[in-house]
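## retry 2 of 3
previous attempt timed out at serialization; input unchanged, resubmitting
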Amino acid sequence: MTELKTFETERLILKPTSVEDAEFFFNLKNSPTWIQYIGDRNVKTIEDARAFITSKIITHREKFGYSNYTVIKKIDSIKIGSCGYYNREDLEGVDVGCAFLPKYQKMGYAYEAGNKIISISFEEFGLTSLKAVTTNDNIPTQRLLEKLGFNFIGKTILLNEKEESLLYEINLA
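## retry succeeded, writing output
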């Protein structure tokens, strides 16, 4: 397997997510905004988080060469969010997504991390476009996607979801 790269921005470190991030992922996946906008992923214990990271994130990275990154503040090494790539069976193309603990929202971190993810998409992984999905009521994410250069292209219903999601895309090449 190739060496896993860590990326940096002015204020952040984007480190490939590993099982050592299980406690953080448990907290993130059970935060109120995660549950509201992304949904309950049935991660009820830290062991569930380890299993999720191993079966979903690490397996995805081994298959595609890219996956999820844990977002860490440089100044104090606190894990504050996640941002990365997802190949969904119910969506053509590569989906990008970010999530942050509520305490670290509305501080520009999602824009900073998302911008880095977009820039390395083509440079590091040769991706020529990215998709993003969000719920109809997640206005902050819709604004973020537009600020990052994504264009709204329509609505979609994802696998195991009842409501339509908004679908965005950005072309990189």
